[in-house]
Amino acid sequence: MGDTFRELSDRIGKVGELYARVHDIERSADWYLLKLMEELGELTAEHLLLGGRAKPDADGAGGTREALENEAADLFGQFVLYLRANEIDIEAAIERKWLRHLDKYVDLDAKM
Description:
By secondary structure, this protein is mostly helical. The protein has a single domain (about 5-110), classed as Helix Hairpins (Orthogonal Bundle). About 70% of the residues lie in helices and about 0% in strands. The protein has five helices and no strands. The termini are far apart. The model has no long low-confidence stretch (mean pLDDT about 95).
């Protein structure tokens, strides 16, 4: 793939815009969050199928590694669309919320 996150985000955004236009989907602030939750549910279902903790539908579809990966891609894509719609700079937020702790935890781990 080789894209930076911004390049990947732009490409996902383009697909999202084209999909919405072709299927005449009006995307509101709620739509992005609800779609994200829908995709999380579908990923959860595939995870349970793959682990043998759920029964497949009558058509027997799903429960494969590829189906799990596809649902993970859907969830990630929808998350990127959510970020874009809400003007969230995820790289800055990750740096602020997570990565600022890295040195501290590396030091603590080294002492263990």
